[in-house]
Amino acid sequence: MDSDRLEEPFRSLAERLLFATACASDASGWVIPGAGLPSSSPARALPSKERAFQALEKVGHPLSSGRLLDEIGGGVGIVSLKSQLSADNRFVRSDVDAWALSDWGMRPYTSIKALVSEELDKAGGELAASRIVEVLTTEFSIKEGTLRQTIAVAPFTSRGGVVRRRADVYEEDLAGRHAASMGREASREHGDSHAVELTRELGLDW
């Protein structure tokens, strides 16, 4: 190519391209003389979730969203970062606002209602409120007051300090009412039958 036949600034650009040299410190490509080194480091160029993975792998324990954002060097909003981590099965939300690697085998934080449901399922459908509070406030940074409010309203109910699902209680109450109704009906039928037999024995059955 004859760069002298080009007008500026194309001629200077062509000359710089022709004399581009390999950059020993950057294996990713060539550096054009006068263009300077890339503004971003190779690590910074990685997607946010990859940098998050490396950061968690390095520290070896969960990090809050804010701390994780500091560790990866920014370049992404906290809402976007949470969205990316939630969609990647390599990560797990390990607390109200903390992230861990799935490989660590930590119990996922989903929601307070979901966690209460998990405890009820493990206990066969009912569990002492004090036990639920003890377990979940130990494993997660959930406030006791918030937890007690959750177990006192739908879809749960707490009677006598025992937490159950309202649907289960309703079904039992319905079954109990049905059994009572059937009992009264059977008693009435038995009474009518006894009255007929007594009438016949007295010779009053005309």
Shape: rod-shaped
Average per-residue pLDDT, rounded, comes to 80
Spans of 5+ residues with little confidence (pLDDT < 50)? 19-40
Largest sheet descriptor: 3 strands, antiparallel
Order of helices and strands: HEEHEHHEEHEHHEEH
Q: Distance between termini?
A: 130 Å
Q: In which range does the helix fraction lie? A: 40-55%
How many distinct helices?
8
The fraction of residues assigned to DSSP E strands is 5-15%
Number of strands: 8
Strand order of the largest sheet: 3-5-4
Q: Specify Rg, calculated over alpha carbons.
A: 36 Å
Helix/strand-derived category reads alpha+beta
Please describe what this structure looks like.
The protein has helices spanning 10-18, 48-59, 65-72, 78-86, 112-122, 129-139, 144-151, 166-201, and strands at 21-22, 30-31, 63-64, 91-95, 98-101, 126-128, 156-159, 162-165. The strands form 3 sheets. Strands 3-5-4 form a 3-stranded antiparallel sheet. A 3-stranded antiparallel sheet has the order 6-8-7. It has a two-stranded antiparallel ribbon with strand order 1-2. 50% of the residues lie in helices and 13% in strands. With 206 residues, the chain is α+β, with helices and mostly antiparallel strands. The protein has 8 helices and 8 strands; from the N terminus they run αββαβααββαβααββα. Strand 7 and strand 8 form a beta hairpin. Helix 2 (48-59) packs across helix 3 and helix 6 crosses helix 7 (144-151).
